[in-house]
Each structure stands twice: as structure tokens, then as C-alpha cells.
Amino acid sequence: MSKKFKFVPPSATTQEDDAPPKGKRWQVFGVLFLASILTILYVNNSIRINELLRDRDRLRHNLDSVQTSAHGIQMHIIRSQSAERIDSIARFSLRMTRNPNAPKLITISDKK
């Protein structure tokens, strides 16, 4: 009964020798985990910044429209308070006449 022996040269490696040590595996896992967390945080930050920029642009547009409306209202008030407009309405709509003896300058004194 003869037994067959398999000769393995010393330079040959097995599958167990190809696997990295357990410490290296955890280091690689840790680096990959850290890189994925940092990527998620970066993308989340980019999305939030874009939302804030959109909100800022929308608010600027709203502010510009409000300022334009306020300017238009101020111009309307100034036109409505003009002496020429009031005089023409008094003469033609209310049929009033000017008093020739009316004072040209009104002074208000603080003394009683």
C-alpha cells in the first residue's frame, strides 16, 4: 500500500495567506466608512446651500417688488397733495373761488 504525497514548494502560498490580516480589514472598513460619511455630509451641505440661495433670491425679488410698489404709492401721494391738483378740483368740481384777501403765509406761534 503506497501512499501518494503531494509536494508543496516553500514559495507557494495558500488562500489563507492571500487574505489581509484582520487589523488591516478594519482599517480599510474604517476609511471607507469615514469617506462615505463625509460624502453624505458634503452632498447634504450642498443641497442646503442651494436651497438657501434660492430662498435668498426669492426674498430679494419680493423686496424689489415691495420697494417698487412703495415708490409708486409715494409718487401717487405726492401728486395727490400737489397744490395745483387741489386748486383745480376746488375750482371745477366744487365750484369754489379764490379769496383775494387770503393770506399768502401762515405762521404758527408757540406762545399762548
Helix proportion: 55-70%
Cα-atom radius of gyration: 45 Å
Low-confidence parts, pLDDT < 50 over ≥5 residues? none
> How many strand elements?
0
What is the arithmetic mean of pLDDT? 86
Oligomer: single chain
Global outline: rod-shaped
Number of helices: 3
Summarize the biggest pleated sheet.
none
Class by SSE composition: mainly alpha
The succession of helices and strands, N to C, reads: HHH
Content of β-strand: under 5%
| N- to C-terminal distance | 142 Å
Descriptive account of the structure:
The protein is mainly α and 112 residues long. It contains three helices and no strands.
Summarize the structure.
By secondary structure, this protein is an all-alpha fold. It is 66% helix and 0% strand.
List the helices and strands and how they pair.
Blueprint: H1 15-18, H2 22-80, H3 83-93
Which key terms come to mind for this protein?
rod-shaped; 66% helix; 3 helices; mainly alpha; 112 residues
